[in-house]
Design a protein that fits this description.
Layout lengths: L1 H25 L21 H11 L4 H18 L16 E2 L2 E2 L7 H5 L4 E3 L7 E3 L18 H18 L9 H6 L2
Antiparallel strand pairs: 1-2, 3-4
Helix pairs in contact: 1-5
The structure holds iron/sulfur cluster.
Amino acid sequence: MTDKTFKSLADLYNTMDKTWNKVAAGYHFKCNGCEDNCCKSLFFHHTYIEKAYLLHGFNQLDHNKKEKILGRATNYCKKTFPQNSEIKTLKIYCPVNKNGHCLLYLYRPMICRLHGLPHELSKPGCEPVKGPGCNAGLFYDKAYIKFDRTPFYQQMAQIEMMFRQDLNKIGKIKETVAQMLISQ
Ligand code: SF4
């Protein structure tokens, strides 16, 4: 059953990527990396299915790469979540990023895929909430091209529900990629 759920997730990721690329092309925007790199953002992820898929990708890497990533992940967590202290947003690279490249690109979570472009998100009964997009795109100077994250979030919730039912998972999850890797 996990294979089927992974396939549903991979299909959803594929749709997200295609939509993102289409909207980005509309702005003539290309992400070439920048000082304010989104891989240095403190992103939390909230689904068990995305964690399982990321770890599935991680487990296909060779031993050496895995050890290096785990070392960086441990370091990341020590700096970002110091014991008896507040979370620190330090703008340090995600442990999976190596020289500007994501080593788990095919398996990266949803927020890594959707980041960057101006977007909107609708909750039932509320006005859509809009997000501005990253600084590199200079989007404030351009007419908004509709990029609605809502259907992606809805489909992700359905896939997560299937996965939780299959594996009897309960409770909330809120983890960075680094935490996902060292808590496996
Ligand atoms: S998982 Fe990949 S894309 Fe996402 S923050 Fe880490 S390095 Fe960047």
